[in-house]
Amino acid sequence: MLFDSHAHINDERFDFDREKVCKQIEDSQMSYVMDVGFDFESSIKAIEDAKKYPWCYAAVGCHPHDTKNMDEEMLLLFKGLAKKPKVKAIGEIGLDYHYDNSEREDQKYWFRRQLQLALELKMPIIIHDREANDDVLRILKEEGVFAPVRLQCFPKKPSGLPDARLLLHCYSGSRELAEQYVKLGATLSIAGPITYKNARKTVEVVEAIDLEHLLIETDSPYLTPVPFRGKRNQPTFVEHTAAKIAEIKGMSYETVAEITCKNAKRFFDIEG
Ligand code: NI
Questions:
Q1: How many A from CA of 144 to the centre of ligand 1?
Q2: How many whole angstroms from 200 Cα to the centroid of ligand 1?
Q3: In the predicted model, what is the mean pLDDT of residues 13-41?
Q4: How much distance in Å is there from the Cα of 264 to the middle of ligand 1?
Q5: How far is the CA of 130 from the centre of ligand 1 (A)?
């Protein structure tokens, strides 16, 4: 029982052997994969994958790298995609000040517009935040992602904390910021870099945050965990992230796999 909460099976780096990778997912102990769009084309491909594979679900949205190509008409098209079967989230959206592939003003504008869309449709949100912690949190607050009217749309988490259905994908921030986010109602997703030697900051986050607020992911084809670092990443490798979290928290692998899978199903509203 494993749920890879963030993968790009839709990426062109899987074009030559997608069938094989998907067969490996079916032959493994994986239960679900969230196939995440990063632009219009990849969002359509994610929906096609979800149609084809019972274990696959889709998220649609425009990554900050690609906001230079966004316009209002495309936002309307995204709205149409968001209503298709098995589309469970808007994402990945956010800000990336590391690469700055799109102008920061463009990134911010389309981040806000896509947040507004997710709020209107009452859908979960997947956030990409690279070196933009302050602006991401400020914009999320300003757009009302943690406002009572949003929180009322979703049942509380089992512990009674609010659930804003907001996922910080591949969380790499501080423990303090993680605690602040969890209090507001966010969920954090831990990716392959937790297995790297220099992961001390994220190890601290995993130690401090209750498993209830954590999901696991690969971000395939990127961020390959140890022992496959250097190769292309794929959803089945998510087991190494689960194993590392189990080690950090002193829990069994089975518990981490089961709880993070349950968390992801609740977060994305997947039944069964
Ligand atoms: Ni991604």
A1: 24
A2: 22
A3: 96
A4: 16
A5: 11
CA 270 distance to own-chain centroid? 15
pLDDT mean across residues, the chain? 97
pTM over 0.85: yes
How high is the pLDDT of residue 167? Answer: 98
Output the CA 235–ligand 1 centroid distance in Å: 12
Give 45 Cα–ligand 1 centroid separation in angstroms. Answer: 14
As a whole-number percent, the residues of the chain with pLDDT over 70 amount to: 100
Q: How many CB atoms lie within 10 A of CB 8?
A: 25
pLDDT digits (tens, 9 = 90+) for 90-136: 999 999 999 999 999 999 999 999 999 999 999 999 999 999 999 99
Residue 127 CA, ligand 1 centroid: distance in Å: 9
| 182-201 pLDDT tens trace | 999 999 999 999 999 999 99
Q: How far is the CA of 36 from the centre of ligand 1 (A)?
A: 7
Q: How far is the CA of 91 from the centre of ligand 1 (A)?
A: 9
Average pLDDT over residues 223-232: 96
Q: How far is the CA of 169 from the centre of ligand 1 (A)?
A: 8
Residue 225: φ, ψ to 5°: -75, 160
Please name each of the domains of the chain with its CATH number: 2-268 (3.20.20.140)
Per-residue confidence (pLDDT) for residue 272, from 0 to 100 = 75
Give 29's strand partners.
Answer: none
